[in-house]
Every structure is written in C-alpha cells, then in structure tokens.
Amino acid sequence: MKKYLGFIILGSMLLLAACGSNNSSSSDKEQTVTIGYFPNLNHAPAMVAKQKEMYEDHLGENVNVEYRTFPDGSTFMKALATDEIQGGIVGPGPAINNFISGVDVQIIGASSTGGTVIVSREGSGIKSWEDIEGKTFISPRVGCTHDVQFETFMKDKGITSERIGGSMKHVTGEPANYQSMFENESVDVATAPEPWASVLEKEANANVVVPTSEVAFGETLPAAVFVTSSDMAENNGDLIQKMMDAHKEAVSYIQDNPDEAVDITIEGIKDITGQELEKSVIENAWTRTNFTYKVDENVIKEFGNASYDLQFLKEKPDFEGFVNQSFIN
C-alpha cells in the first residue's frame, strides 16, 4: 500500500512539473507587430526592410511581422490610434495634426527629407508661381505635408487658397492618380511627392514650377517620419528599439546600395499600386530625396507653426513630448 501511494505521489509531482513546463512556454507566445507605410519613394526604407526581412531579424522568431499600406496620412493615423499598427512611416503633417488634436503619437525617427515638387499640367499656361493664382491644385489630403509646404510657399508670395480667402482652388486625390487628372484637365497644378512628380514629368510632360530646393522646408523638413504611440514607447521600449534598429539598418542600406534600393522601391510600388515605374523615373526622383533617420526637431516646430498660420490648426502647437530621439541616439 505504501509503495502504491508512493507511485501516486510521484505521478502527481511529474504532472505538476509538466504543467509548469507548459506555463513557461505560454510566456513565449508569438505576438504580431504591424508596420505601416505608403507607396511613395520617401517610404523606401519600409520597402527595403520588408524585402530584406530586417524587422523579422531584429524582432526575433517570436514576433510575427506584418505590413500594411495606406493611401494617406489620415487613415494611417486612425490605424495607429486604434492599435491596428504599432508603428511606421507617415508624413509629418498628419502626425502633427493628430498630436495637436490629442492623438497619442510620437515621432521617434525620420525616413527622408526632400522629395516634394510642384508641377503644372501641360497646356495649363503655368510656367511659374505667379501663374498659379486662380488655378486648381491637388494634394493628397487637406493639410497634409505636401499641402502645407506648397501653401506656405504661395502664402509667402501673397497667394492663398479659397479655404482662407484666396483664389486657388484645392482638390485632393491619391498621387498615383495625378497623371489621369492632368490628362483630363481636372487640375492644373500638383504638389507631388516623389516619385509621382517624376512620373508626371516623363509621362504627362509636366512642367516643374517649384523645385524641391525652393518649396517651403523643401530640403530640411523630414518628408516622412517614423512614428509610434507614446504608450508603446514607454511600455514596450525594447520592442520599439528593435523596430527602430531595423529602420536604421534599412536607411543605411539605401545609402550604401542605392542601385539595389531603386530596384526594390520600383517593385514595392508596383506591388501596391499596380504601376511599374521606369527606372529612369525613380532615379530622377532619387536625386531629390535624401534618406536619413535623424530628425531636426526645430524644423518640425517651424512646420507646425506654418500649419497654424495656414489655419489647418486651431491653436498654436505645443510640441512637448512629440519628438522622442532616444531610440536613434
């Protein structure tokens, strides 16, 4: 009887040990991290990181990495606010607008600078900024990065949009559709992120009215920034650091391997938009874009104040806690 009881106790101990082992493995349960980005050239680091599996390498085997693309900053920011994505690349305009509105968003790095070009439709008669008064221009969204850059430039010249009492008419649309809108003459001017400005030059014979070097904040403003929520940054710092390390690796790869990065970007844009852009188009756009993960916080503040001056923001922005450079230093 004692021997039988001993077997029961030993069996119970083994069962408890097995249960403990199962509990230990459950702590290693796979989690999913979703990265968001746009099919624009200044989001090339995301396409390179995806193709080279850099996020997968940095985040490790227990993290399932997914990617989601967006047509504009508004839908991107909604996805971030609802935790559908944990981070990614977006224009500084939507990030600022949402931060000021109380959305939990934090800039933790840059993606690129430059890449915004103002072009006019062939046959529009627009050869310089003076000819734009009373014309119709298009940007991806009202108050987006490229819109603010263009309207700031024009406001400095004394010309504003109808929204604030001026003469310029404003419509919105996806950059990939700008060519068809030029061809049907529904718009006269486009404030275009690359590579779509170069597409319009080559395919629609568009005229460059304001080059990247002259448009407001053209060569200093981050054309795209890497963002996450402050909640993620504070409570999942190790995870965010690994995401930023992958992003930094992608930027460095682009700097060191521009020819291959061009090919990856062409394929990445094709996968999203269905349009296979010519290599010469991307190479032209590349000359107007500088890839970097470093953020100039002062330029971000200047850009935010410009958004306020254009009445995209109801209050002058307070940027306390908006830029967090701890993950790139």
UniProtKB/TrEMBL annotation:
<dbReference type="GO" id="GO:0005886">
    <property type="term" value="C:plasma membrane"/>
</dbReference>
<dbReference type="Pfam" id="PF13379">
    <property type="entry name" value="NMT1_2"/>
</dbReference>
<keyword id="KW-0813">Transport</keyword>
<dbReference type="InterPro" id="IPR044527">
    <property type="entry name" value="NrtA/CpmA_ABC-bd_dom"/>
</dbReference>
<keyword id="KW-0472">Membrane</keyword>
<dbReference type="GO" id="GO:0042626">
    <property type="term" value="F:ATPase-coupled transmembrane transporter activity"/>
</dbReference>
<keyword id="KW-0997">Cell inner membrane</keyword>
<feature type="signal peptide">
    <location>
        <begin position="1"/>
        <end position="17"/>
    </location>
</feature>
<protein>
    <submittedName>
        <fullName>NitT/TauT family transport system substrate-binding protein</fullName>
    </submittedName>
</protein>
<keyword id="KW-0732">Signal</keyword>
<comment type="similarity">
    <text>Belongs to the bacterial solute-binding protein SsuA/TauA family.</text>
</comment>
<dbReference type="InterPro" id="IPR010067">
    <property type="entry name" value="ABC_SsuA_sub-bd"/>
</dbReference>
<dbReference type="GO" id="GO:0042597">
    <property type="term" value="C:periplasmic space"/>
</dbReference>
<keyword id="KW-1003">Cell membrane</keyword>
